[in-house]
Amino acid sequence: MSERKETVGVIGVGWVGLVTAACFAELGHPVIARDILQEKVDSLSRGEVSIHEPGLEDLLRRNAERITFTTDMNELLAGARLLFVCVDTPPTYSGDADLSRVRAVVQELPEDGDHVLIMKSTVPAGTGQSIRRDMPNLSYVSCPEFLKEGTAVQDFMNPDRVVIGADPGDEESADAVAGLYEPLGGQILRTDVASAEMIKLASNAFLATKISFINEIANVCEEVGADVGQVAQGMGLDGRIGTAFLRAGIGYGGSCFPKDVSALKMLAGNTGYHFQLLTSVIEVNELQKRRVVGKLEKHLGSLIGKRVALLGLAFKADTDDMREASSLVLAARLQGEGAEVAGYDPVAAERAAGMLASVEMTTSAMEALEGADAAVLVTEWREFAELDWAAAAERMARPLIIDGRNFLDPEVLQAAGFEYEGIGRAISAPRPAPAP
């Protein structure tokens, strides 16, 4: 008989917490997942998952007997020694991370030496030191998450690396956390707490910088007649650069990059250091979303009374996350210019409807394109690549498309009768290979 694995506690069952709970259960660990919202706990206990993440629902269903959902902190403390904190740390009005949820969790934990707080939430460097100063007898380990929405389950089960930060005196706790991840085979990096906290912020800030950089290159390519797809391919073949995150488009969004880049910029600013590079990264990303409006005006002139279809509303494909989605900025700017906006997303429509109240929500791409003067591809959902574009052109008042993700094949669109414009690419450019 195999040895029973240690029970894992998870505090906060949002996207990160739910993936963490499901994956540890898949590894054979009993899991107690606690959240303060009774409605959420009840729905999860019934097997209802409101988050769209490929593979997550199947994982939860397969491991339902291993996972207990509760609102009772005492039940969690009684059943689990290792406690992963997975609560949100959204940006405040100042751009700093809001640690109120983290602080609320810490205040509920006893300094009994029997529990280990494992910080999975993204927090500024120095948070662990602050918590330990207030609760010197609390065992504290930083274990930042590096999951990507749309591939989170795969990322958890096949990590590039697992970062475990612990200060002197907490080696035993760090060993316990490392033991949980050893079966996954990823490289385990042991650091001090502050360095582990900084690794997460620095990683996301660097990836966001790559995105803003290639978008700037795309804008220059448009001026000089170069094609950013070919430029990015040539850059990426250099092993020092790599191909990842060199896809030009209308900018990054979601729950991590905007928040973490802003948090790192503010963290530096609070110490008196002006992080000039990140200031530019943020500015480029915001401007990139608005460039689409200029492209539309180049073709259509005034946008007053024009119908524009937004194809895709979520910030990226394979998720229903609308946080910092480019569609939010585009819809507002287009309406500000007098356009009528229709939107379609195969997964995120329900979430989007509450955030885009004045946008006409449609149930299919064809419905969104009906009578449209132009379309903007905002999210690279696979169904858009497979759409009958010849039929779509017949439905539109003017078959014009701005490919905001360089996702579609220009030759296919042109053959279907479309005017096509991408981001930083020659109109006759071949479709780039999928990102690895």
Walk me through the structure.
This protein is an alpha/beta fold and 436 residues long. 43% of the residues lie in helices and 13% in strands. Strand 1, helix 1 and strand 2 form a beta-alpha-beta unit. Helix 12 packs across helix 13. The longest helix has 32 residues.
Task: Characterize the overall form.
Answer: globular
* The CATH top-level class label of the largest domain: Alpha Beta
Low-pLDDT stretches are 428-436
CATH homologous superfamily label of the largest domain: NAD(P)-binding Rossmann-like Domain
Distance between the termini: 41 Å
What features would you highlight for this structure?
alpha/beta; Rossmann fold; six-stranded parallel β-sheet; 18 helices; globular; disordered C terminus
What's the layout of helices and strands?
Elements: E1 8-11, H1 15-26, E2 31-34, H2 38-45, H3 56-62, E3 67-70, H4 73-79, E4 82-85, H5 100-108, E5 116-119, H6 127-134, E6 139-142, H7 152-157, E7 161-165, H8 171-181, E8 187-191, H9 193-224, H10 228-236, H11 257-270, H12 276-300, E9 307-311, H13 326-336, E10 340-344, H14 349-355, E11 360-361, H15 365-369, E12 374-377, H16 382-385, H17 389-395, E13 400-403, H18 410-415, E14 419-421
Parallel strand pairs: 1-2, 1-4, 2-3, 4-5, 5-6, 7-8, 9-10, 9-12, 10-11, 12-13, 13-14
